[in-house]
Amino acid sequence: MAKSKQDAGILDELYATILSRKGADPDSSHTARLFSRGRAKIAQKVGEEAVETVIEAVRGDRQKLAEESADLLYHLLVLWADAGLDPAEVFSILENRKGISGIEEKKSRKS
């Protein structure tokens, strides 16, 4: 796996920027505009970006897949911020799942 000059810390930086846009002027900030439209609209954007990411994955265009993935992560972070969900909570769940078979983990959620 190629090592990137950026790491997952960029998500923490982006999340902090997103939080700083809460309550900002929707005419001067796309993020503030998303917050002003409410959680349903933010969730809709996450869905749209997820579909676009899938389309580019199927098409096989790595650059467009990377771009759509960035859009998806951004909108997901906006949704988390709107819901008051700190990324550390999600990262903790991922950490706790390390070394557990995906099949076993899914079975454990059904009980």
Q: What does this entry show, briefly?
A:
With 111 residues, the protein is mainly alpha-helical. The chain has one domain (10-95): Orthogonal Bundle (Helix Hairpins). It has six helices and no strands.
Q: Please, could you describe this protein's structure?
A:
The protein is mostly helical. The protein has one domain: Orthogonal Bundle (Helix Hairpins). Helix content is 75%, strand content 0%. It is built from six helices and no strands. The chain has helices spanning 9-20, 30-37, 39-59, 62-83, 87-97, 102-110. The radius of gyration is 16 Å and the shape is globular. The mean pLDDT is 91.
In the CATH hierarchy, what is the class?
Answer: Mainly Alpha
- Any low-confidence stretches, pLDDT <50, length ≥5? none
Which homologous superfamily in CATH is the superfamily? MazG-like
Helix content: over 70%
Major sheet characteristics: none
CATH architectural arrangement: Orthogonal Bundle
